[in-house]
């Protein structure tokens, strides 16, 4: 990595330009740049077609972001998370801002950012607790400047922690219409019901009647909330319990299929192989 403490007529900054290992580039989330800056005068930064994702927080002052055809006002405590392959620019206001930022990438990032958007994540958000994000940024800078031989693994861990926090902040039902927010909140009740009754025969029609929600709308909101369909969630819950019973009981596959609500050993075997890459019997022997 290279340290740069720079000052110009418009900004004073301290940053680390990071060059990850080939292993990190192919297998991990990796850092490209991290640092902080304080604006000394009005300035605008503009980029496009950059294979990078940018996170930054406004620690003081204000400014604006232009991204994907929209302009967002930014104030102290606001955060930005964007795909830099799209054109963007950001500029301080007369209330000169101070920022902390990181650019990072990884081959899984396009799918991760898509999931962030599906959960309702926005380019600009105001986190409830800035402290944990500030801690992540401090840890990231410290890891990047260290000489540890497992530095890339540590950076990967910190970037995953950052993404976890961003995902937590991506859902804000209170910002939508009250009725829509109530429907979203009811998904917790639906999920609890699935967790408690996955061994039973459950259909979308049954859930629709029980929770007084149109089955198509129920399917849509559940996937937006948890990232999977109701059918996929049920199947994952059942396969997980099947693995538990295979490992820690002597139950037959027929008995297990009945116990987890599938009621068909052949169907369980097909779905188990599809998900785990081996038959239930092979799983039991290997684990």
UniProtKB/TrEMBL annotation:
Pfam families from the UniProt entry: AraC_binding, HTH_18
GO-annotated molecular function: DNA-binding transcription factor activity; sequence-specific DNA binding
UniProt keyword list: DNA-binding, Transcription, Transcription regulation
SMART domains, sorted: HTH_ARAC
Superkingdom classification of source: Bacteria
PROSITE patterns: HTH_ARAC_FAMILY_1 (PS00041), HTH_ARAC_FAMILY_2 (PS01124)
Protein name: Arabinose operon regulatory protein
Protein species of origin: Fusicatenibacter saccharivorans
Gene (UniProt): araC_5
């Amino acid at each position: 990595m290279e340290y740069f403490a720079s000052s110009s007529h418009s900004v004073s900054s301290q940053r680390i330009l990071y060059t990850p290992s080939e292993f990190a580039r192919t297998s991990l989330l990796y850092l490209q740049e991290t640092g902080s800056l304080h604006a000394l005068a009005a300035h605008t930064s503009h980029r496009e077609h950059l294979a990078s994702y940018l996170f930054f927080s406004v620690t003081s002052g204000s400014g604006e972001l232009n991204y994907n055809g929209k302009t967002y006002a930014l104030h102290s405590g606001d955060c930005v998370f964007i795909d830099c392959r799209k054109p963007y620019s950001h500029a301080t206001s007369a209330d000169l801002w101070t920022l902390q930022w990181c650019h990072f990438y990884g081959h899984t990032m396009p799918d991760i950012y898509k999931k962030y958007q599906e959960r309702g994540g926005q380019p600009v958000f105001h986190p409830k607790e800035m402290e944990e994000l500030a801690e992540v940024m401090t840890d990231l800078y410290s890891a990047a400047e260290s000489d540890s031989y497992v530095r890339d693994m540590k950076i990967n861990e910190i970037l995953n922690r950052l993404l976890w926090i961003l995902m937590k902040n991506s859902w804000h039902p209170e910002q939508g219409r009250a009725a829509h927010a109530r429907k979203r909140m009811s998904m917790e009740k639906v999920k609890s019901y699935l967790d408690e009754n996955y061994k039973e025969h459950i259909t979308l029609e049954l859930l629709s009647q029980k929770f007084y929600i149109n089955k198509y709308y129920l399917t849509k909101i559940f996937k937006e909330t948890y990232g999977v369909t109701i059918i996929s969630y049920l199947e994952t819950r059942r396969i997980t319990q099947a693995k538990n019973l295979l490992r820690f009981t002597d139950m037959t596959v027929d008995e297990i299929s009945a116990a987890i609500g599938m009621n068909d050993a052949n169907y369980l075997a097909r779905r188990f192989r599809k998900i785990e890459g081996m038959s239930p019997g092979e799983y039991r022997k290997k684990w």
